[in-house]
Amino acid sequence: MAAGIRTRHGRSCRSRDGGRCNCSPSYEAWVYSKRDDKKIRRTFKSLAEAKGWRGDAEGAVRKRTVRAPSKVTLAEAAAEWLEGAKAGTIRNHSGDRFKPSTLRNYEDALRLRVLDDLGAVRLEEITKADLQLFADRLLERGLSASTIRVTLASLRVIYSRALDRGHVAVNPTAGLKLPAPRGRRERIADPAEAVALLATLPEHDRALWATALFAGLRLGELRALRWQDVDLGEGVIRVKRSWDPKAGEIEPKSRGGRRTVPISKRLGDPEREGYLYLHRIRANDPDGLVFGNGSRPFAPATVRQRALRAWARAGLEPIGLHEARHTYASMCIAAGVNAKTLSIRMGTRASRSRLTSTGT
After folding, report:
1. Pairing of strands 292-293, 296-297
2. Taking Cα atoms as reference points, which of 219, 163, 157, 212 lies closest to residue 327?
3. Cα dist from 229 to 133, 174, 225, whole Å
4. Amino acid 359: pLDDT
5. How many whole angstroms separate alpha carbon 14 and alpha carbon 21?
6. Average pLDDT for the chain
């Protein structure tokens, strides 16, 4: 047996009396933490898992990135993480606060799917095999690939913090095999089709959809856009904020989300009766939200229903606001906009291949 690993046989195993093993043994691996003057132990179902963990743990002990395990349970670690993330003391990998919608998704995933099964287990005792079995069970229950991925993402951020603080030797969420999302193909309209879609809409809705199609703003950014951020003279939209359904006005999605987007002639040119130019003339509150009523942003579901009715009457294939953003990316690529410039305009850090395929 390898150093630092011992075989643990069942109580009724014949090997205890010197005979041949007739049980399914487990394997206990350990490393010594001089800093804590304790052994760090873990038990595994296979020898390969035990060896892999011991190798990782030895390196972590040498680097002083791991300590002897605490008695903290997953439920306790989750509660601490959520409290810190909501307060802003725990941040994402870019150093930004987590979006309110992301925190709600993580909190719901932990409450509805994780903590009942694993909450009482110590953080250090949960293995990669445990989490792979957990993910497989979620798939058997009929949950979608995206729901499973969000659920495991909520565990990943907790273990990432625990690993950084030396509370665990390895991150059991690394390398899990999760189902791939297979969503429907996003719709992309060509420029002529985009103009036709806009022409059939109610007049007061055209500027909103046009800004999604010809400036590529996200839904939350459209809802939070103020006239003070739209400079028709200079020909730019300055994206400074977004809108969360529950938290209200928030920071943009990422650091790159705060950006300046050029206003195309279709939006801002007076001679071509640009959609934003006409919308500015008709604005009831020139200091308020561009697409809202005073301080209240537009309701996406209501706007969507009006558009669907108009397009159905005209016999046109409908499009969504997020798909309109994809359309903007596609038109920019067709016009020869390079990947870096497009990434800045879109407020993303995506590679050219990703922008070409998704436009997000």
Report:
1. antiparallel
2. 212
3. 49, 42, 7
4. 38
5. 6
6. 89
Q: How far, rounded to the nearest angstrom, does the alpha carbon of residue 3 sit from its chain's CA centroid?
A: 42
Query: Which pLDDT score is estimated for 69?
Result: 67
- Count of domains forming the chain: 3
Q: Examine the domain organization and report whether 233 and 321 are in the same domain.
A: yes
Residue 57 located in a structural domain? yes
Token pair belonging to 27: 């394997």
Shared domain for 227 and 276, answered yes or no, is yes
Q: Looking at the structure, tell me whether residues 221 and 337 fall in a common domain.
A: yes
Q: Work out the average pLDDT over 214-236.
A: 95
- CATH code for the domain of 130: 1.10.150
d(CA 178, CA 134): 11
Nearest CA among 287, 278, 292, 295 for reference residue 207 = 278
Query: pLDDT tens for residues 93-121?
Result: 888 889 999 999 999 999 999 999 999 99
The pLDDT assigned to 85 comes to 95
Q: 6-28 as b/e, with b when 16 or more CB fall inside 10 Å?
A: eeeeeeebeeeeeeeeeeebbbe
Do 130 and 268 belong together in one domain? no
Q: Is the pLDDT of residue 21 over 80?
A: yes
Q: Which domain holds residue 128?
A: 74-164
